[in-house]
Amino acid sequence: MKVNWESHDDAESAARAAGRHIADLLKVVEGPVATLAVSGGSATKHMFQELAAANLDWSKVHVFWVDERPVPPDHADSNFKLANQYLLQPAGIPADNVHRIKAELPTEEAAEQYQDEIRRFFRLGDNELPRFDVVHLGMGGDGHTASLFPGETLIKDRDHIAASVYVDKMQQARITLLPAVLLRAKNPVMLVTQEDKAPMLQRVFSEPYQPEKFPAQLIAYEAPETFWYLDNGAARLLRPEE
Ligand code: 6PG
What is the pLDDT of residue 133? Predict the structure, then answer.
């Protein structure tokens, strides 16, 4: 299985390269609206900084989230807070273009409200799914992506938009987009950094397809046209031809 990846000297360089790639993708979206869904992650700040500095028409870009922790928008753990500080504010993205997951609510309710907002925005009929222009995803050392962690039964779901999922290792519920939406993205962009990810990344790219064990294989196997931005630490066990 062939995965498109490139490796950079450090996490910041990989993140900035991913930010430039996302900017290039957004620039060529035809029509009045471009849709971007973003994740959290330790290197994502640099991706946002690069993206915010790009010369593009932010008035057409609508920002959504791939997942969110069960915290208010000003909490240190909030993926919204991260994006707001390094992308939304610096780029001057209009408030009407920001589709925040209201994770200060009970997570089931937040997931329902987020699904309704997505349905309204994309003008979806029953059982229809959104197609984002760009979706940014990370990968944890356990192989999770979005908030789909190993063993999550919703990894099999191909019908729904978003859900509240309980994450045992975090002892918390989170709200996350579900696989069908991630796999319908026109342009998924993976950003994976840090040396501790190397063993898992090598397994994600080489083990037979077992997404409940290796959730990031959802993207590697089912969205092979994705571009993976890595730092040398995360890529150290990959062979160039992989
Ligand atoms: C989150 C993210 C999550 C993240 C990975 C990688 O809410 O934490 O959406 O999926 O992208 O955990 O994060 P790191 O790069 O910090 O390991």
Answer: 98
For the residues 80-89, what does the mean pLDDT come to?
98
Each residue of 121-146: pLDDT tens digit?
999 998 999 999 999 999 999 999 99
pLDDT tens profile 25-51: 999 999 999 999 999 999 999 999 999
Q: Which ligand 1 atom is nearest residue 42's CA? A: 16
Distances (CA, A) of 168 to 66, 155, 165, 173: 19, 15, 10, 8
pLDDT at 242 over 70: no
Q: Whole-angstrom Cα distance, residue 101 to residue 114?
A: 6
Instruction: For 156-169, give one letter per residue: b (16+ CB within 10 A) or e.
Output: eeeebbbbbbebee
Strand partners, 98: 63
Indicate the helix (H) or strand (E) that contains 50. Answer: helix 44-52
Q: Which two tokens stand for residue 230?
A: 């890595």
Give the whole-angstrom CA distance, residue 78 versus residue 142: 21
Report whether 93 contacts 141 (CB < 8 A). Answer: no
Measured between alpha carbons, how far apart are the two ends of the chain, in Å? 8
CA dist 242 to 53, 158, 176, Å? Answer: 32, 28, 29
Counting from 1 in the atom list of ligand 1, the atom nearest the Cα of 141 is 17
Please say whether the beta carbons of 194 and 233 come within 8 A.
yes
Pocket lined around ligand 1, Cβ cut-off 6 Å: 39-43, 66-67, 79, 138-140, 145-146, 193
